């Protein structure tokens, strides 16, 4: 049976970060930035020979619609002894997220109509500012890093997107937009800052998918 954890419990907060990363990847986009407002409840179950499973109740907000929050339940299963496999995450959003259809289409058309492919760096800048025209790109970086956070989370990590070091749009022959990101992830437990290269494909009807991601080593 599952044991209640205080919502301030560090392992509950780490599981919540993995769940929010997964949800950002699944449901985020240029017109939607999901973040955790409150971890309301957490329980942990130790499943023999399998791993530790967290049951979470979260309250989320969309940075573009701060007045409205959505509740969400998540289950995060960390596999025993595995350093390589991502936790299994299941997320259920209660109620509807604000529609981003128009904003998505507008962003898509704007990027498609650029004379030159978009290139930008240091989002936010050293003062914490994001130029308005780069805000959708920053939210797509949340989506890209959400995937990396979910894939690389363990019970002992808590990742946070610190900055987009560099982003470059790559022209494609199909309908997708492609962005090659270098993101800096701050790992709150070890206090390390880890650069990751992530290639994100996005289309307003099909949403986002990560084509590749890898740790950007000092040697590369």
From TrEMBL:
Q: Which GO terms describe its cellular component?
A: extracellular space
Which PROSITE patterns does the annotation name? Answer: CYSTATIN_LXN
What's the source species' lineage?
A: Eukaryota, Metazoa, Chordata, Craniata, Vertebrata
Gene symbol here is Lxn
* Highest taxon listed in the record's lineage: Eukaryota
Pfam families, A to Z: LXN (PF06907)
- The organism is Loxia curvirostra (Red crossbill)
Q: Which GO terms describe its molecular function?
A: metalloendopeptidase inhibitor activity
Family note: Belongs to the protease inhibitor I47 (latexin) family.
- Gene3D superfamilies, alphabetized: 3.10.450.10
| Boundaries of every Cystatin LXN-type domain copy | 1-102, 119-220
- Write out the entry's keywords from A to Z: Protease inhibitor, Repeat
What protein does this entry describe? LXN protein
Q: Among its keywords, does the record have Transferase?
A: no
